[in-house]
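F.,

This is the one I mentioned.
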């Protein structure tokens, strides 16, 4: 039997799979820190990669890391080139973030969230090439499509809802437990009425692949997103490909459609 032959439901992450949010993450970070009187000097790619590293995939932790990096003047590119990048960021956070900074950190996080979801931020977002074509191919083959994203519904509404058709969608506000907890995936499967043996989740981060494993469904990692491919590979997805289009082609090939 081919790996994806029995797939009936394809669940997608949004950022890094459908939506290219590299610049949005970077501009949002700069904006939030500037609002707190801090000048952020790290580059766009390094910022994105840091935000997909270990515990810093979670927004509060990510903003805390950005605060520490800015305060310390550390070379984020140099940090991200190391195999122990997460531990080095941990040390910066421990050294430069104090309990008295909590109000500033809360303000930075709130500024980031508002910027990320604002109508004006749409100019920093674009859909990956062939992503729409990939979804059309899957839909034409009779597959159900779902979304599980850490993004808030207001930003999903700005860029995704209404533009594309999904059978079920879960955003940040719809779950208590964030990825890598499987809650979001299980909610989509329950709503659509298709179990994990017939489901594949396509994501771009370690937390996506781990969530799929905990939900006992199949997983495909794509390298278009914010995470480093080396971090994605460590989670051992069932398949790693360049983008959503390549993932769709493989699923349909296994099903004898392509």
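My design for it:
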């Amino acid at each position: 039997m081919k790996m994806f032959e029995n797939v009936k439901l394809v669940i997608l992450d949004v950022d890094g799979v459908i939506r290219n949010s590299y610049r949005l993450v970077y501009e949002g970070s700069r904006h939030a820190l500037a609002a707190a009187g801090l000048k952020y000097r790290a580059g766009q790619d390094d910022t994105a990669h840091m935000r997909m590293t270990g515990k810093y995939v979670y927004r509060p932790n990510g903003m805390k890391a950005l605060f520490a990096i800015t305060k310390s003047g550390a070379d984020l590119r140099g940090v991200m080139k190391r195999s122990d990048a997460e531990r080095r960021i941990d040390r910066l956070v421990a050294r430069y973030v104090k309990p008295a900074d909590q109000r500033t950190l809360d303000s930075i996080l709130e500024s980031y969230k508002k910027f990320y979801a604002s109508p004006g931020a749409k100019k920093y977002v674009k859909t990956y090439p062939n992503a729409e074509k990939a979804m059309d191919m899957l839909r034409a083959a009779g597959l159900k499509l779902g979304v599980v994203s850490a993004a808030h519904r207001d930003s999903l509404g700005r860029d995704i809802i209404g533009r594309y058709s999904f059978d079920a969608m879960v955003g940040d506000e719809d779950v208590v437990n964030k990825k890598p907890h499987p809650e979001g995936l299980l909610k989509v499967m329950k709503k659509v009425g298709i179990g994990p043996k017939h489901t594949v989740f396509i994501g771009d981060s370690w937390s996506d692949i781990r969530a799929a494993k905990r939900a006992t469904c199949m997983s495909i990692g794509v390298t278009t997103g914010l995470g480093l491919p080396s971090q994605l590979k460590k989670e051992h997805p069932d398949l790693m490909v360049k983008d959503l289009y390549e993932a769709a082609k493989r699923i349909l090939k296994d099903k004898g459609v392509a």
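The chain has two domains: 9-21+125-254, 22-123.

Talk soon.
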